């Protein structure tokens, strides 16, 4: 099984990395691919260049087996839709490899507003990363979808290429890229919110000042 975690990663921080590692290890995934988006659809556009965000991601996961950087969305023009990325991965990996799209509670709450959400669910499992014991607030249609496709544990995922929803407890860290950028702009250090190797790149390149 392959995990997929998308985002702006502007910059990548421990709030991205620790949950990704939790899912890698707890779900027994072969790998988690961190995929930086090119053109954001539901959020402000990233400030750092694509090349810098790739460098920061590569520095963040260096030496950690199973966490890998995938640049396919940066190579594709136009809006970065999860559906298009999953279609691309299916073309590369085949129709039978289980794909697990890792999403946070907030993102899952907006899932039905995504581009082709039901097609996304047909292409991959949804892994909803949550604080232990915390159920996301869902509107009625999403509640109905969850009841129809929810599975109790990871054993239900391995034999299927996609189509299931699993709620997975992960380490919750109140870190945000926005806060890191604010600290840097104010001349304050964001150390201990992100890997030192990423901070060194930011400081050397003068990003976010």
Total individual domains: 1
Q: Would you identify the CATH H-level superfamily?
A: HUPs
Largest beta sheet: what is the strand line-up?
Answer: 3-2-1-4-5-6
How much is the average pLDDT? 94
Broad structural category: alpha/beta
Percent of residues in beta strands: 15-25%
Rg calc: 17 Å
The number of helical segments is 8
Instruction: Give the CA-CA distance, first to last residue.
Output: 40 Å
> How would you describe the shape?
globular
Name the CATH class: Alpha Beta
Can you give the helix content as a percent range?
Answer: 25-40%
Main β sheet profile? 6 strands, parallel
Write the H/E string, N to C: EHEHEHEHHEHEHH
Give the beta-strand count: 6
CATH topology: Rossmann fold
> Under the CATH scheme, which architecture would be assigned?
3-Layer(aba) Sandwich
Low-confidence stretches: none
What is the gist of this entry?
The protein is α/β, with parallel strands linked by helices.
Characteristics of this structure?
about 210 residues, alpha/beta, six-stranded parallel beta sheet, globular
Give an overview of the whole structure.
With 209 residues, the protein is of the alpha/beta class. The chain has a single domain, classed as HUPs (Rossmann fold). Helix content is 37%, strand content 15%. The chain has eight helices and six strands; from the N terminus they run βαβαβαβααβαβαα. The chain has a six-stranded parallel β-sheet with strand order 3-2-1-4-5-6. Strand 5, helix 6 and strand 6 form a beta-alpha-beta unit. Helix 2 runs antiparallel to helix 8 and helix 3 runs parallel beside helix 5. The longest helix has 13 residues.
